[in-house]
Structure formats: structure tokens, C-alpha cells
Amino acid sequence: MTDHNHVHGPDCDHDHEHDVVILTDDEGNEHEFVIVDVLELEGKNYAILVPHDQEEGEAVILRVESDENGEEYLIDIEDDQEWDRVVKAYENLAAE
């Protein structure tokens, strides 16, 4: 669910209150998500996203990467150990 993967930062020309990304699922449907937080762990950044129409609910976590031009994009976390570390760090952050 990460085809669009464009991170809308403060310098983008979109008019919005929160940073919003549009993710495309396996069936080609687009879904808007709000970036509610960015977690830094072991030198990598992870975007915490919730569906745009819900400020609370189940979060989606994706790793933030940059291409050769510095354009940021989001990718799935496929490594189980990395996923476990990120979820634990997010849960610790949320508990504070």
C-alpha cells in the first residue's frame, strides 16, 4: 500500500493543515493518511500515519527514505526484527 509515497512537507504547494500522504493499495484505491509523528530510531526515520478521516485509530508505520534528489518517499518495513524494534519504540513513545 505504498505506491504514491510522496511526503508532503512544509515546503510543498498543497494547502493542508497536517502533513498528508496518499497511499495506493494493491487494488489501486487511493487512501489519504495524516503523518501524526516521525520516529527516529537507529539513524532511520519512520512515519506514523493514521487515516485522514480519523485523528485516532490504528496507526500505520512506514520507513522514510530519500532518493538521489533528496525527495522523500515511504516504504514498507519488511524485516521482522526491524518492525519489532520500531513498534516497541513507538509503544514506548506513546506511553510517555
TrEMBL record:
<dbReference type="InterPro" id="IPR009711">
    <property type="entry name" value="UPF0473"/>
</dbReference>
<comment type="similarity">
    <text>Belongs to the UPF0473 family.</text>
</comment>
<dbReference type="Pfam" id="PF06949">
    <property type="entry name" value="DUF1292"/>
</dbReference>
<protein>
    <recommendedName>
        <fullName>UPF0473 protein EFBL_2586</fullName>
    </recommendedName>
</protein>
